[in-house]
Amino acid sequence: MLLLAVAAAAYAAAGGLDPNFSGDGKVTTDLSTRGDFAAAVAVQANGKIVVAGSAAYDTTDPKWALTRYKAGGAIDTSFGGGDGKVITNFTSGEDAVYGLAIQSDGKIVAAGDAGLRTGNSKFALARYDSDGTLDPSFGGGDGKVRTNFTTGDDEVSSLALQPGGEILVAGGSAQNRANPKVAVARYLPDGSLDPTFSGDGKVATDLSAAKDYANAAVLQNDGKIVVGGLAAVSGSRASFELIRYENDGSLDTTFSGNGKLSTNFTSRDDSVQGIVVRSDLDIVAGGIAGSGGSNAKFALAYYQPDGTLDPSFGGGDGKVMTDITRGYDAAWDLVIQPDDKVVAGGEVSGSGGRFAAARYLVNGRLDPDFGGDGKVTVNFTTRSDFAFGLARQPVDGNLVLVGGSGWGGSNPKFAVARLLDE
Prior knowledge:
By secondary structure, the chain is mainly β. It is built from one helix and 28 strands. It has one helix at residues 2-12; strands at residues 26-29, 37-43, 49-55, 63-69, 85-88, 96-102, 108-114, 122-128, 144-147, 155-161, 167-173, 181-187, 202-205, 212-219, 225-234, 237-245, 260-263, 269-277, 283-291, 297-303, 319-322, 329-336, 342-348, 354-360, 375-378, 384-392, 399-407, 413-419. The chain is globular and about 50 Å long.
């Protein structure tokens, strides 16, 4: 009885697996007989959870893949063809979803890559009705949109919805060519490019003479757009980068003087992977510090509205690095709570690979009420498990982490874990 009480307490604590989700807080789902992974998650108003990524990613023809779960973790058979799953093909190359959002009318918008292995991949969007069927009112009548920035590989990493229904997508242009740039596009609700955004709906921004890429985009409540990613500032070394645009796509020169901001954590690769905005308009950027080394860490930086680092965060310099393990730790996504605590979700390399999350107080210290020391890891298999996407359920505050499980084995799957907020 004592052991049962201890186990129940572990589940009930903030950061513990939610036993009301599939009995043990974890779900895995096969989307194909090959390698599947989830990269994005969004929670509907009714509590259902939509997860998206790629099916058969380890083949020559990966496809977009979506699935939906009921609030308790069971597959929602009212979604897709009766099995809760939707597969969408754009090209004969690499297709994968990396951004996901739910419109106020319940329609689902996904963004990602189309044809990445063809040498001329495009920004890709699709909109689905709430039952998972493609929405014929979006795009050219088939529910899908493709956009070229260049004749090279243009890649999508993130998606955000604006209050007027516009769809903002960020990533990189010409990623397989010389001088790749950060790329941002905005679409009207019907899927056409928005001409009020930079004249043609597209903006490409140079941060360095080498590879630049956006991994995250978020909207401030004043309409300004914050994009984060990386720039290869010295040889192959990448820096932690932020850009802020006005609502019309022009650079916001009140941010760091020219709209662009570079932050160093280490002498190796540092990159922004997620962004949130606090209630005081401070910007929180999270990602990876020291990628490429043997001990990469979760990295967070807090910026004041003008782009200066917030000295009240961390050790006085506005930056925090967190070791979850002694190996490769990477934060791939962020969410913010109503009390301005920030949760970072991602992966650690220990034991073959695990889901990981850390929660930070407003001063940047780890929250001891979360997992006992501010950090949590979750195993699905003895092989490589990794989390790419993170969402906070609006009703109860519980956290949904999504990624892949069993990579390195014969049949990797979509993986979803739900952690308790309190």
